[in-house]
User: Fold DNA 3'-5' helicase from Kribbella voronezhensis.
Amino acid sequence: MPRLAIEREFLRDFARLDRKLQDRVSDVFSKFNEATHAGIHLEKVGNARDDRLRSIRIDKFWRGVVLAPESGDTYTLLKVLPHDDAYVWAQRRQVSINTVTGRIEIRDVEAIDATLPELSRAAGGKDERLFSQVSDGDLRRLGVDNQTREFAGVLTDIVQLEAARAFLPQHQWEALYGLAAGLTPEEVWSELGAPPADEQIDPDDVDAAVERTAERVVLVSGSAELLEVFRRPLDLWRVYLHPSQRKVVAASYRGPARVTGGPGTGKTVVAMHRAYHLARQGSGQVLVTTFTSTLATSLQMGLDLLVDDPKVRERIVVQHVDQFAHHVFRKRLGHPKLLSPTDETRRWRQVLRALKLPVTETFMSEEWRQVVLAQQVPDGEAYLAAKRTGRGRPLGSRQRTQVWAAIDAFQRGLIEAGLWTHETIQAEAAAVLGEASDKPFRHVVVDEAQDLNPNQWRLLRAAVAPASDDVFIAGDTHQRIYQHRISLKDVGLNVAGRSARLTVSYRTTAEILAWSLNMLHGQQIDDMDGGSETIAGYRCETHGTLPQLKSFAGRTDEYRALSEQVRTWIDAGVEPGEIGVTARSNSAVDTLILELRRSDIDAYALADSQARSSGVAVGTMHRMKGLEFRCMAVVGVTTNQVPPPSAITPVEEDRATHLQDLQRERCLLFVACTRAREQLYVSWHGTPSDFIDQVR
Ligand SMILES: Nc1ncnc2c1ncn2[C@@H]1O[C@H](COP(=O)(O)OP(=O)(O)OP(=O)(O)O)[C@@H](O)[C@H]1O
Assistant:
């Protein structure tokens, strides 16, 4: 019985076809089983380098290219192209099974043959080659075969390697790229997901190779499954996972585990697949949680797409972390009365005045959150001994006693008035669940973990009993945009030995990522586990244009130019819903929406969940976390706006906090810029922000 497998490129081609043609392709391949039995045509391709490549008729003008095995029964759909292009594509290609990795590989032999002599000539006199430091043995062990080794041997810089991506076998290219980016052979090997060492690789067994190549080829059993894959051809993430992603999704961990990685490396994708994997096991409910409501909605939608079995889907609950905290709180204590920010400032002011304490309300509010609530400090004695890491301004014991008096008075005031803050609700909810013997969930999956505060962590820790696969954490500390710096160990989550890093960015182009990473150059970023995070080895799936940087004399000109830019994108065929616009402040966002609407561009505020439309999404940089857009405009990157002085603790008040604030704001701009999939536009008026000036 023949089986069909679909290669990633085929699905990409399919996504570009018009609806009628897509239906025709679905029709042809749904009938494939019958067709093969009836001897329907898989035509041989004349002058092919690989005589297993066949063409199949879609209609008068279009052909599919299929790999037909010499033995075995797996037929792999490789391309769908206009008639002549399909034949040319097939004539140039060679399909093989890598004897080290066991995976299916496709290479453009003609392009390799055509490029090699020229590269050899260019390299001629040069001693230093891109891979002179890597031994032949290491290359061989990574699955780089003779032909690719010969090619790699004449490369002198990484740009040549990048250009070769289109024609070298993908896995081998990735191995070379990892080495060129400074990874060790061991790191490359573990990233690319090596097959079990004892597995015998038969270079002619296409069936087995297809099963091993899950990141590029998906096997479908029957027409229903085929149609399911064809239903959303653009969402490749549902079907294909990179080996490094798949490894994390399917692993069995003896305790909490986590995945890190730069922007767009698929941490959210992994979190969703992981939740699906755990829910399928049927051992209990899975909580999928994250920091903001916008992201929780997008996780909800992603899971609806990914999980087709309603019984499995029912086992997954998506709630943002505060929603979960409030839910637990309400069940026990009813509806909380919330302290407003203005009331909070007023209360601190009163307390400080009464005690004649010469510190600001902001200082007290931060001290209370970051020291007292974060470490669950119960009394003055404990406060004297509390760690104040990251708080910068040192306090002697006399000062601590005074500060504690203020905190104590403030806390008593809240209790008397029956007032709660999100943080005290989180702490209360964590205590409620901590005491419960019956936990609400069997697994917790956390996305955008870098921004959760200690009480949110305690709450999530308490939501599941300590067990295998209990907590799964996805996050990137380069994208931390709130104040909280925590150590996972301190909140009862030990991920030692259960941590993986993703390095291939699927979202953004190499140009946008490189430019954005420059903004973080030289910054020391922690890894939430006592070490520091690295950006070594990040690379992108695609290339594109450089970010556009635009300077204007005044704000009016800058905003008008934004409308023109958005109009240019729309005229070029980008859907308004694929465009994101961001600025640092709420008021700038409001003005930008008005400005776009004045230019007859449909635009809506991301903050307004009711207003969701197919128009351009406009939101603050904080709102942009976790989202992505084909074209992204980051506006108002002007000095005194990015960062706004109000967000930065004055250096004379507290140097350490000042530096942390600056880093957090820098990361915020980094997050905003890395939301772009294809094009990034950055503008300012007057003097640009220091963050931009540095990378201009
Ligand atoms: N295996 C894959 N195949 C195809 N596309 C993928 C794959 N993994 C991720 N993507 C795509 O890459 C983009 C980024 O993925 P995702 O949002 O999961 O990354 P992330 O690491 O969570 O990003 P960030 O930290 O910047 O928010 C998405 O469009 C996603 O669909």
Remarks:
- The mean pLDDT is 90.
- Residues 236-237, 240-242, 245, 261, 263-269, 476, 479, 506-507, 626, 628, 674 surround adenosine-5'-triphosphate (CB under 6 Å).
